[in-house]
Amino acid sequence: MDKLAVRANLIGGAWVDGAEARENRSPSDIDDVIGLYASGTAASVDAAVDAARHALASWSLSTPQQRFDILDRAATEILARRDELGDLLSREEGKIRAEGRAEVVRAGMVFKFMAGEALRNPGDVLPSIRAGIKVEVTREPVGVVGIVTPWNFPIAIPAWKIAPALAYGNTVVFKPADLVPASAWALVDILRRAGLPDGVLNMVMGPGRVVGQAIMEHRGIDAVSFTGSVATGRAAIATVAGRGARIQAEMGGKNPYVVLDDADLDIAVEAVVSGSYYSTGQRCTASSRIIVTKGIHDRLLDALRTRIEAIRVGHSLDDASQVGPVVDARQLHQDLDYIAIAKAEGGVLEAGGELVDRPTKGFFLQPALFSATSNAMRINQEEVFGPVACLIRVEDYDEALAVAQDTEFGLSAGIATTSIKYAEHFKRHSRSGMVMVNVATAGVDFHVPFGGTKASNYGPREQGAYAKEFYTTVKTAYSGW
Question: Which domains occur in the chain, in start order?
């Protein structure tokens, strides 16, 4: 297929054109048109839901082996095509090549794991308190699941939502982020060819205000899994829960990384640079508030300044690049606005923060580091979602913990220390869904639960065996003989 042929929506097993075709351009080179992708409408969502409801009757009763075989075949193809798909991902989203390929591997491993979960869905048989009666507790699919995903992980996040939905016998209506349709389209095509029956997986591409909103409002959708901004997530929760359906929402973070005086400086620097700036800082788990005790503050600042100034920002497919471009012009403007806000609030720009010229026309921004900030500043309370981090100087561990907690978010938190006492205390007392000791806040395994607290999360956790809490419903059955 020629790269400029229109990639259509998948509805009921057929490729269906949209109301219009939208260009997908590379943030590394805005003259690079990756392809044309169909843009659906609310009517497209109606058709997709009808197809999913029709397919649910048989798919919900399919055997675990059938579901295992399909998901495993898809996983095998994803992993075999890791270089090709990784480069496609990097080209459309802006991650450097190594990160793009690693994300594809993660998606493949998610499907491998969830294929196994199709076979690991146990129930319970219990004696009743009444004689001659048996009680069975089983898990069944919740029904038709709407899946809405963000642009920053264009294949991994769809994978960790779609795979458990299918593994547990649900059917799916999927809307990928409008900025990154290519990776999603490739993933759906792989699953279709792996043997999914028609209508089990449907994809409607298009803008969130149209397609996403239609999914949230549709009474034929029994559950919605959403990842995106706090504002959109809160609106989605109100809409979906308001009509009595189930919703799971992951909505971002303002993640702290605490560095204590006793920390290994090299470990701390690596954790901060990796967690704050890799993937262009466009991760909800990125560490943007670096909370540093006074005894190590100046040494950490000097080391970070040196590292950040040396980071090579460039085209995502240039192997010399360490950080790729910002995803689009709108996000770049947001990053620059927050850099200006931090300066106006009194923060000292220690490194980076300026646009970078490269041979291609892209959205290149040198990662920014601020010092002399307080936790009360907007730059330390609002999610930037870019390569911007701020140092906050504190007296001791107690103040560091208090500052770390002083946020509406609670997704991920980290600490660098050689003290078992402080590490264990931080793990127990941090009000975050995920806590890291001497490793970066960003980067989690595919087989363990992912999610946060407070404004970062609503509903059950994602990933691993815990995914069944959202994608299944519990039935209790009594038998008397």
Answer: 6-251+456-480 (3.40.605.10), 255-437 (3.40.309.10)
